[in-house]
Amino acid sequence: MRKTNYLFLAVVLVIVAGLSFISMQAPNTVDPATYKPAVYSTIGALLPPVVAIALALITKEVYSSLFVGIAIGALLYANGNLELALNTMLFNEDGGMIMKLADSWSVGILVFLVVLGIMVALMNKVGGSAAFGQWASQNIKTRVGAQLATIALGILIFVDDYFNCLTVGSVMRPVTDRHQVSRAKLAYLIDATAAPICIIAPVSSWAAAVTSSVPKGSDINGFSMFLQTIPYNFYAICTLAMMVMITVLKFDFGGMKVHEDNAMKGDLFTTAARPYGDDEDNTDKPNGAVIDLVLPVMVLIFCCIVGMIYTGGFFTGESFVDAFAGANASKGLVLGSMATFFFTFCFYMVRNVMTFKDFTDCIPAGFRAMVAPIMILTMAWTLSGMTGLLGAKFYVHDVVASSAGILKMFLPAIIFMVAMFLAFSTGTSWGTFAILIPVVCNVFGAGDTYEMLVISIASCLSGAVCGDHCSPISDTTIMASAGAHSDHVNHVSTQLPYALTAASVSVVGYLIAGGIAYFTESSAALIALPITLALLFVTLLVIRSYVRRTAA
Fold this sequence. Notes:
Blueprint (H helix, E strand, L loop, with lengths): L1 H24 L21 H13 L2 H16 L4 H10 L5 H6 L1 H23 L1 H12 L3 H14 L4 H18 L4 H16 L6 H9 L8 H8 L4 H16 L5 H9 L27 H21 L8 H6 L3 H23 L4 H14 L1 H19 L2 H12 L7 H16 L2 H15 L6 H21 L4 H10 L3 H33 L7 H24 L1
């Protein structure tokens, strides 16, 4: 063991010495307007996220994996110059960690998470979560019912994926624990309802993101386009349908089956990792009321919607649709969560369910609960910034644009896979929207049908959600782990086979839709949706048959 440590130290010293030599030969300052690293806009630009993802899956340690990916990205950007790499990693205006944290949008998301963490702590303190758990236990009698209730609650909270993940997790965790649903399965149910429901909900922060990504000079109404993409968003619809089918059919496969089998024996975690402790119904007041949880959650949904349309100018004359399309999701969620925070304080004080000291004690407790996801989010944003500095988006742009002239009937499927790969590598679906939607809008000219454009935009949205759903560095994936209090690597590894199953069926769906739209030039391509869902059902029946045969 000692020899291995010495060898590792020697390798590190050699690398540092080599980089130090390079640093002395190369300039330590660059002009951001003209500087281009050697791997700019090449496949090498995707190396940092690929390394980070591979290390996370191999080492099962997220923080160090993300840091290594960031460091590699900075070194690639600096062409090996250590000083420039360090300054890039921390202070670069477009991708540095400090600058990412200084961005008002990022800070808003972090504040929103902290406030949600405090809200969860308050609900637990007064016994609201425990009361809901007791009520649910009386009305939800089976494991199937507990999982369906989790799915239903996730669908109801459609405003924002962050809010969805943390709220559904805190509310349903006691219920699923009582019915011996593994934490990995709970994390999957949360993650699979968060982004998929947001991307097909007209009133959501995601609708605003998509609308704002449509080029202004394209003569395309962004919100109208978004509405038309909903029935073609095969991955989102297939994912939601797949959860219900698997739950009703009572089977699991891959790593999830191991976790679920262990959960039914009393082990909810399977692995030794306990990032949030065992936290089984940890409440000081088991006699709380259901309203102590339900009313704050309802107020939070209402206030977040109001907050978003406020930032979009609804109260200064804009229509509801235009206000939501132009909303600042980060600012709106902060306003909504802060308003709910003060409401909850007054509500609990009036009900006399907690003292002022109890209330103030929950503030640092809620903040501490969010430290882990905040750290991961910070590094995930920085890693995304590194890929941006390396020109990854332009490489992907060229890949998509070059495919346009081959066969346009296959373009929706191609766009889906490219968007999936980009979102998986960068961990951001919104960034993928911003990169690919303008490209897709420009790919189709006057001679192409509008229906093919709608299908291609839908495939872009669908692929981005799929890649985001699969990626270990995605903020939504991280939030789902946090909401379920599940080990992050367990969540990623167990949900990946499920996500890839839905993705495979979706590719076939886009091949069918693209072919129909290309030859008919009409909305007859909508028939692809029921065909895709039927194919998904048959696929799951085949998998279930195989799993049962193998178990026997």
